[in-house]
Structure formats: C-alpha cells, structure tokens
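Worked example

This section walks through a single chain of length 176. The input is the sequence exactly as stored; nothing has been trimmed or padded.
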Amino acid sequence: MNLLDYEKIDVGGGGDYIKFEKTGDTKYLRFMYESGGEQMGADITFRRKYWDDEQKKYVYDTDKGSWMCALKAIEYDEGGANPRNVLWERSAYFCKTVLLPMWRNYPRIIDGVWKVTASNPKTMDATYSLFPVMNADTVSYPIIEQTAPQKEQPQEVATPAPAPAQAPAPKKKYWE
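Given that input, the structure is written out below as tokens.
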C-alpha cells in the first residue's frame, strides 16, 4: 500500500498510542464504544499482527500472528481534566478475559471511566489493574469528539515585524 492509498483510509479516532513506562503508572480511560447488552463489544475490531524479521516491521492482516486491537479511548488527568484521544493496543485475549467482563457492568462500554494501573510494563509479565472511577459523569469526565487525522494544509505563517534595534546598555565596571 502506498501513501496515496493510505490517505484514503479512515483510521478513525486519531490520537496517540499510550504507554505505561514503569510499575505504578496510572491512566484514567473512557473506552469509546457504544455497544452494550447482548451486543457488548460488537463494535470493536481485531486484526492479526506479527513481527516480520526480514522486513523489520510489523505486518498486519495475514494468516500469521496474534489477534490485536487498538482500543479507542479518551485519557484524562486525575479528576477528569485535560481529555485527549488515545489508542491502547491490547491482545484479543486481554479484551476477552479482562475488559469484556468489566464492561458488562455498564449499559454501554462508553458509560464507564477506568483507573488503569500497570505492573511490570514492557515485559512479558505485564499486568494491569482496572478499577471503575466512582461518580465519573460526563461533566467531570467529558466525552470529547473523536478526531480524524487531519490532512496537512499549507498555511501562510505571518512573520512578525523585526523589533527596532536598541542601543546596548553601557557596561558597568565591577567596582560600581
């Protein structure tokens, strides 16, 4: 696939991938999926992903690799400030065994805000503790619009007028 074809793909959601750097890192997340009830999780898509040693990159949508998902979410600072769109890449197994049972406590996935704390991130022993944020409503934890990637538009940048030159202040002698 070339860049022209890639530009036409709606990757949906935009945002940056989140990372947990060290044990104890905590993030507050609202997962941006509307499904609920018997259809809980029906709007979450998975793709196969594997590392190709020859090409030195990840390859998607082949018969090889693990089922993965880039979960769309809103990340908040503690208390709901500074909402921003993010993606959290997780395995299908994690989604099935950890997230889906939690989400079933809500009418829709989007209705809950979760405090996610990492243990041993960046290792094969990584685990995540997820707890619901009590009394998290859409006022204290606002739902922001999902942003699609923007095409770069050439913009004219106004250059500020140069400041008038000022005469240098006379230097004082050290004894003054």
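What to look for: Strands lie at 16-17, 26-31, 47-52, 57-60, 66-76, 84-91, 114-119, 127-132.
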